[in-house]
Input
Amino acid sequence: MSKAAAPPIELASADPSIAQEMARWLSHLGAERRLSPKTLEAYARDLRQCLNFLCAHWGERVTLARFAALEATDIRAFMAMRRADEVSGRSLMRALAGLRSFGRFLEREGKGKVGALSAIRAPKVSKSLPKPLPMASAKRLADADERAGEERETWILARDAAVMALLYGSGLRISEALGLKRREVPRPGEGDVLVVTGKGNKTRMVPVLQNVLGLVQEYVAICPYPLPPEGPIFLGARGGPLSPRIIQLAMERLRGALGLPDSATPHALRHSFATHLLSRGGDLRAIQELLGHSSLSTTQIYTGIDSERLLEVYASAHPRR
Output
């Protein structure tokens, strides 16, 4: 494993050896495991919280030797403290995953084996089904005319419609759509595939409809700022990269105009893409590839939505005696 120096970390609750290994662990996760900055930030925060708890719990700063000698009761006490703070089961599961990752890193580096971490069961997380939009509503969100009454420049309305069309038409995450460079989006008639960069900097190919490319081209044609091939295709009102928050606000306005529930978010368009494909006979593994899910179990949540919809149809249409 690489011994490259990592940025120093300050820890009041632990001695410098823990801080050094924590910095190297995070550097390893970012450079070799290619975890996203948000995941690294969450893992670092979880480990800090655990070290702070252990410092108070033991009444002394945490050393590498003491951390390696962790007992299952110590971890359970930490998890109980976090649950008392009304932390969700999903966040607790992530915290435990981060602690286990740090423990495995220490073991590989010959700094001790934290066996207690493997003895702790991950907390149960209730699976909530995504809430897709009706097909007609999803299509209307990509229509700039739906916002014609707003006091916004035409190019901005065209831009927002193009982004919404990509989220629904290709099942992109909002970060993937806003991360597209100008050269990566073909003109209508010159291609039908996008290469997008998803979580962990993994790339995948997704099909794109010609009418969606048409909406993107309409925006490009009237955008008042230069759009060089290597630059982002979607720009903000001042010419900088477009913030996801702007698209979220646009969706909030459209929710009111179209009478949609609060669950109608930009990410709901990605859910809608997957659900509507599945309801029309799409193959689950193909949908997994299109969405960029590393595990089929993540994609399988959409079978629950489809089954739920079928049960609703059955309940409303089946003749009763």
Notes: Residues 37-58 form the longest helix (22 residues). The chain is about 55% helix and 5% strand. The first strand starts at residue 193 and ends at 197. Residues 66 and 281 are 55 Å apart (CA to CA).
